[in-house]
Design brief:
Layout (H helix, E strand, L loop, with lengths): L3 E8 L3 H9 L1 H7 L4 E3 L7 E5 L7 E9 L3 E10 L10 E16 L2 E12 L5 H27 L10
Antiparallel strand pairs: 1-7, 2-3, 3-4, 4-5, 5-6, 6-7
Length: 161
């Protein structure tokens, strides 16, 4: 059993704008990283993301970037219940891989399909719990991205703190 998930959403903005909303740390901080993002997502970079529901900022390793098409990231895997704080989850000695793709919707260049796949957890009950937590987080990220890009609303403001 491979522990892997895929979430997706349609955003009513052109691909370049949606891609930049993820790659640009100032924009990412406006709707997703409740404690802020540091560093632009560029191939080979190590950026930092901080969330109020996790203790302290953590590194995100940028493996691949194809502008306006694909971002591949890696970060340290956490294993535990989806709603536990990071302090309650056991840190691990391995990383998971996150692949984001950005595709124009056929027939409507002003809409973008964003897909996020994360994989690489150990095939254990703890790995399964960790994957559930990240699946929840990426689903929230896509909802927050849509609300921010289409309506200027930050869904995550005050959500965790």
């Amino acid at each position: 059993m491979e522990l892997k998930f895929r979430v997706s959403a349609h955003i009513s903005k052109p691909v370049h704008e949606v891609f930049e909303a993820v790659a640009d740390p100032e924009k990412l901080s406006a709707y997703f990283t409740t404690g802020g993002a540091k560093g632009r997502i560029e191939e080979g970079a190590e950026v930092t993301w901080d969330f109020h529901d996790y203790p302290g900022a953590f590194p995100v390793y940028v493996i691949e970037v194809v502008p306006d098409q694909r971002i591949v990231l890696q970060w340290d895997a956490y294993e535990g219940e989806p709603c536990e704080s990071a302090a309650e989850q056991a840190p691990t000695d391995y990383r998971t891989t996150v692949t984001m793709t950005f595709k124009p919707v056929e027939g409507d260049p002003d809409r973008t399909l964003v897909e996020i796949v994360e994989e690489g957890w150990r095939e254990t009950p703890e790995g399964l719990k960790g994957s559930y937590g990240n699946c929840m987080g990426w689903s929230q990220m896509l909802a927050a991205l849509k609300a921010w890009m289409e309506y200027g609303i930050n869904l995550r403001e005050g959500f965790y703190k």
